[in-house]
Design a protein that fits this description.
The protein has helices spanning 2-21, 24-27, 40-52, 68-79, 110-121, 143-155, 174-177, 190-204, 210-220, 224-235, 243-250, 255-266, 270-283, 288-301, 307-325, 330-346, and strands at 58-61, 99-103, 131-136, 160-166, 181-184. It is of the alpha/beta class. The protein folds into two domains: 31-184, Rossmann fold, CATH 3.40.50.300; 255-346, Up-down Bundle (Zinc Finger, Delta Prime, domain 3), CATH 1.20.272. It has a five-stranded parallel beta sheet, with helices on both faces. Helix 9 runs parallel beside helix 11 and helix 14 (288-301) packs antiparallel against helix 15. The termini are far apart.
């Protein structure tokens, strides 16, 4: 009896500290439609569904970290007001739960559609107007599974609605797309990302330099989830976060280092350019793929490179990317890229 009491006490303590220990990406996930960052047109359309207390099948498409899953949860939470989606409050009888969330990248086969999804979808909801199934990463589903899902969506539309979430709508078969209202989420702007992060800075009382905040925005590329995770990783030390801390935590090179390496190459200084490359690969331990992506990113925005040189650089970057994917030696391939840039000036 004493052991049981101690166990219960420990569980209560775990619950009390759980909120403090949870991932910030979950802690700061929007709970209301108005809290969704940007995506104003999408929010306006979804508000109409909430006001009408109904919705069609939906397809949310867009880059990672732009609010697709959060928007789906907010929509369900407001439509099914008696069921706490975020708290995952479930009845004792599974048949009474009007909401099911699956990650299609894990459960992507036709058997999942035929068994689990179909068994859930065909039952009438008791405490809600309809049931809702959220299929996250739906573009990972096999073609056979998608064709089986198409029929299920059509057959049980009176009892169940589907929200499909994907990064690439082109990987969803046309018959499914035609049965859904499609919402396309855009990458978030630097201004929106900065506003979101500043709220976390203030709430968590984080000391961070302006340069470090800009570095998080640069590395995250409009992905709020990634930005939040980077911030939480950097803040674990409790010290003031610097720009260098962000790049070390993410395994990225500072943009000025990449630009300096490119400028050396296009001015014919191959030795100096390769020396910087080796420092990034060997001393800092950065991956060749990440360096190549940053070279591509910086090339497109550098104003002191003429268009002809940019075109040739991007063509070569694409070739090097293919070679790295095929398993070629990273140091040799990136050195070859720098040599090609030097060669452009000698032609």
């Amino acid at each position: 009896m004493i052991e049981r009491k101690d166990s219960i006490t420990q569980k209560v303590r775990n619950l009390q500290v759980g909120y403090k220990q949870m991932l910030w990406a979950e802690k700061y996930r929007p709970r209301l439609l108005k809290d969704i960052i940007n995506q104003q047109e999408i929010k306006n359309r979804l508000k109409g569904f909430i006001d009408a207390s109904t919705m069609p099948h939906l397809l949310f498409a867009g880059p990672p970290g732009t609010g697709k899953t959060s928007t789906a949860l907010v929509l369900i939470n407001e439509l099914l007001s008696d069921f706490d989606v975020f708290g995952r409050k479930e009845d004792s009888l599974q048949t009474n739960v009007p909401y099911l969330e699956l990650n299609a990248s894990d459960e992507r086969g036709i058997n999942v559609v035929r068994e689990r999804i179909k068994n859930f979808a065909h039952l009438m909801a008791i405490n809600a107007p309809f049931r809702v199934i959220v299929l996250d990463e739906a573009d990972s589903m096999t073609s056979d599974a998608q064709h089986a899902l198409r029929r299920t969506m059509e057959k049980y539309s009176s009892t169940c609605r589907f929200i499909l979430i994907c990064n690439y709508s082109s990987k969803i078969i046309e018959p499914i797309q035609s049965r859904c209202a499609v919402f396309r989420f855009a990458p978030l702007s630097k201004k929106d990302t900065k506003k979101y992060l500043q709220n976390i800075f203030k709430t968590e009382k984080i000391a961070i330099t302006p340069e470090a905040a800009d570095a998080i925005i640069y590395v995250s590329e409009g992905d709020l989830r990634r930005a939040t995770n980077i911030l939480q990783s950097a803040a674990i030390s409790g010290k003031e976060i610097s720009e260098d801390d962000i790049y070390k935590a993410t395994g990225k090179a500072q943009p000025q280092e990449i630009r300096k390496m490119i400028k050396y190459a296009i001015t014919g200084a191959f030795k100096e350019s390769r020396k910087l490359l080796l420092e990034l690969i060997i001393k800092q331990g950065l991956s060749a793929q990440d360096i190549l992506k940053q070279i591509h990113r910086e090339t497109t925005v550098m104003t002191d490179i003429d268009d002809r040189t940019k075109v040739e650089m991007i063509k070569m970057i694409g070739e090097i990317d293919f070679r790295l994917t095929e398993g070629s030696n990273p140091e040799i391939q990136l050195s070859a890229l720098l040599a090609h840039l030097v060669g452009l000036q000698l032609e």
